[in-house]
Amino acid sequence: MANNLRRLWDTDPDAAPKKRTFSDDFVGRFRSGRLVGKQPESLSAWRVTTGDPTVAAEIARLMGGEPEEWDTDKEDNLEVLTDSPSVEIIIESSDKIDASMKLFGLQGLAHHCDGVELLSPDEDKGEPCGCPPLLQDRKDKARSGRGPKPSIDVAFRLTAAPDLGLFRFNSGSWELVKILHEVIADVDAYDGPVRATLTIEHVSYTTKAGRDVAYNKPVISVKGAYETAAPADLPMAA
Q1: Angle of CA points 46, 47, 50, to nearest 5°
Q2: Buried b (16+ CB within 10 A) or exposed e, 119-146
Q3: Confidence band for 229, pLDDT divided at 50, 70 and 90
Q4: Both ends of the chain: CA-CA distance in Å?
Q5: Helix (H, G, I), strand (E, B) or coil at 57
Q6: Which residues 6+ apart lie within 8 Å of 53 measured at CB?
Q7: Phi and psi at residue 172, to the nearest 5°
Q8: Stated pTM of the model
Q9: 113: part of which helix (H) or strand (E)?
């Protein structure tokens, strides 16, 4: 759809809409899942949503897929189900990585903490959050809907198209939150932006009890300083 829209201006380029520019605003969001009806579905390749047809078309060109509209009341009404499980990205600093624990209720955000102290509302900031000290107990409470789960935010640019703008990835992955401090340390090891890969990694194994387990998890791997890296033609991890 968006690819066809671009061709409307081939015969009269002077009348074409000017390309939108972005600075601090997010131009799109990388997602590792979607809702099918009311059921969540984990994806093996990135799904990118955006409200900008130009961004959607560029994502489709670089990562495969076709821009399509999807049912949402948010601004990012276009989605691209890409063919790419991995994408090369630029993380400008560790300040672009944020993590906390959140629980949402019918009235919105019901609990927000860093695992030790409350982060909001302002009048309760700094008070003990009351979360269990053990990770497994926290996971159990989150699964039951009585406790918060991780909310990890990463802001980045695409190595293959850095001028396209900032993208956002949000994850509730317990696996990622366990090693996020290592990712932050890897970013901080360089003085300036770093090149990294953002990957949906498939994990499968059989437990000692003989139960087959399979799931997808997001993985962030820092590769080096961005200035010393030659951008790839495609934002695909080698």
Answers
A1: 130
A2: beeeeeeeeebebeeeeeebeebbeeee
A3: very low
A4: 30
A5: helix
A6: 2, 5, 6, 67, 78
A7: -105, 25
A8: 0.80
A9: strand 108-113
- The number of beta carbons lying within 10 Å of the beta carbon of residue 112 is 19
pLDDT digits (tens, 9 = 90+) for 33-47: 998 888 888 999 999
Measure the CA–CA gap between 214 and 216, rounded to whole angstroms: 7
Question: 28: part of which helix (H) or strand (E)?
Answer: strand 26-36
Distance in angstroms (rounded) separating the CA atoms of residues 181 and 99: 10
Tokens of 106: 């019918």
Please count the CA atoms within 13 angstroms of the CA of 117 that sit on its side-chain side: 7
With beta carbons less than 8 A apart as the criterion, state whether 158 and 87 touch.
yes
pLDDT tens per residue across span 101-154: 999 988 889 999 998 999 998 999 999 999 999 989 999 999 999 999 999 999
